[in-house]
Amino acid sequence: MLAPDVVSAAQEHDATVVFIHGLGQSNLTWKSDVVAALAPKFPNVEWILPNAPKRPVSYNDGMERPSWFDIAHLPPYDDEYNKAAITESISVVHHLIETQVTAGIDPRRIILIGFSQGAALSLMASLTSSYALGGVVSFSGWIPPRFRQEAFSRETSPYKIFWCHGDTDDEIPLSYGRDAIAFLKTRMNYSEPETLQMSVYEGLSHTINGEEVADVGTWLSSILS
């Protein structure tokens, strides 16, 4: 696996954002659009952008692409769960978190942000982390149904989640996001509005737009200011 790209804090480093890309992308995919827009507003934040390894992807007829875990269909089927690769990728994120905590960063000032498959990984890693993190941003994400029992079996204190989803997304439909939100509310104690927010973006497909980035900036300010 390639080393993460790191955007250092402009001032004293006291918070960290880990940005996890989606299937077939790289750690540079969203750097110029998202990280470059947000980093100047948070001069004390270090941005870590990990790179997924190349794996055979069933959805692409076995072609090797950057992928955190295998996917056979888009939208993913409920019974799809590439457990070995998911476990490995969760460990990668947990290691990044542990490295930051060891360096003296308060876990409550560590944020995971992910797009699509990276959002799913961010959510799974945070729900299985031994630390109470500051929060998670899900851009067009989902929580694999077969993972949920594992998450439900652990005692996890609610942290803040901001869920962004377009209403015309046909790869990870809005219904997948709403289903995950229902799981978090009913099974994972995310019953308070301040812990779980969802914003739906009219006419937005499977991508990230400027309105989402602005909203995430406001949300990050509420945690990291």
Automatic annotation (TrEMBL):
Record's keyword annotation contains tRNA-binding: no
Coiled coil: none
Annotated SUPFAM superfamilies: alpha/beta-Hydrolases
Gene Ontology cellular-component annotations: cytoplasm
GO terms of biological process kind: fatty acid metabolic process
EC numbers for this chain: 3.1.2.22
Keywords for this protein: Fatty acid metabolism, Hydrolase, Lipid metabolism, Serine esterase
A molecular function GO annotation: palmitoyl-(protein) hydrolase activity
Catalytic reaction equation(s): S-hexadecanoyl-L-cysteinyl-[protein] + H2O = L-cysteinyl-[protein] + hexadecanoate + H(+)
InterPro entries in UniProt: AB_hydrolase_fold, LYPA1-2/EST-like, PLipase/COase/thioEstase
Phospholipase/carboxylesterase/thioesterase domain mapped to chain residues: 4-221
Main enzyme class: hydrolase
Keyword Chaperone (UniProt): no
Function comment: Hydrolyzes fatty acids from S-acylated cysteine residues in proteins with a strong preference for palmitoylated G-alpha proteins over other acyl substrates. Mediates the deacylation of G-alpha proteins such as GPA1 in vivo, but has weak or no activity toward palmitoylated Ras proteins. Has weak lysophospholipase activity in vitro; however such activity may not exist in vivo.
Annotated family: Belongs to the AB hydrolase superfamily. AB hydrolase 2 family.
Name of the protein: Acyl-protein thioesterase 1
Taxonomic lineage: Eukaryota, Fungi, Dikarya, Basidiomycota, Agaricomycotina
